[in-house]
Amino acid sequence: MKLIASPTSPFSRKVRIVAAEKHIEYELVVDAPWESDSKVSDYNPLGKVPVWVFEDGKTLFDSRVIVEYLDSVSPVGHLIPTDPRARIAVKRCEALADGIVDAAVLTYLERKRPEVQQSQDWIDHQLGKVRAGLAAMSHEMGMANWCVGDSYTLADIATGCALGYLDFRFPELDWRRSQPHLSEYFDRIVQRPTFKDTVPVA
Ligand SMILES: N[C@@H](CCC(=O)N[C@@H](CS)C(=O)NCC(=O)O)C(=O)O
């Protein structure tokens, strides 16, 4: 099996962490979907990473589908609870974290366009979602040790990847100052080897 991924993509990082936590082996194929020689569209009509490729050539996308599959195929350390309420709480946290990343990625891409074509209104609109998403993330977590319940789940992986992406691409947002508990929590989860092994590099 192969994972087509970009080393800077937080969605790819989420899948890599889940696969590592579950001890699932695969071949990592690095592909940057923005490059003209990218082959990602051959595997995902939406042209986005990550993509999971099975031995028979069939594929899975997007990251939420892939991680759900990976969690279900290995009994090692369940990351998505089976209890319906806990399960949907984890998926909701993942949606919030992924939504923050979606808005952050759109902001990053807008800022990469030639300056005259950039829309400050669009950037502000997206950054508003990032800030509101962070505030909700922090509020919902309160002073708890984990995003959902009393153990490490997919919600923590998605949250950690979102916060790591903000540190990587938006250090000027300085989210840690307004979210001190989230900051302590983040410092704790990034000590996990699976987070350390997947730190984004430009
Ligand atoms: N919802 C998708 C989002 C994936 C996504 O936006 N990936 C970005 C990289 S971080 C990408 O490949 N973008 C290429 C493009 O939009 O053309 C997922 O969870 O997999």
Automatic annotation (TrEMBL):
Keyword field: Transferase
GO biological process terms held by the UniProt record: glutathione metabolic process; L-phenylalanine catabolic process
Pfam family of the protein (one): GST_N_2
InterPro entries registered for this protein in UniProt: Glutathione-S-Trfase_C-like (IPR010987), Glutathione-S-Trfase_C_sf (IPR036282), Glutathione_S-Trfase (IPR040079), Glutathione_S-Trfase_N (IPR004045), Thioredoxin-like_sf (IPR036249)
Domain GST C-terminal as annotated: residue spans: 83-202
Occurrences of domain GST N-terminal (ranges): 1-78
CDD domains with a match to the protein in the record: GST_C_6, GST_N_3
Classification via PANTHER family: MALEYLACETOACETATE ISOMERASE
Database matches in NCBIfam families: PRK10357.1
The name this protein goes by in its record: Glutathione S-transferase
Species: Parasulfuritortus cantonensis
Organismal lineage: Bacteria, Pseudomonadati, Pseudomonadota, Betaproteobacteria, Nitrosomonadales
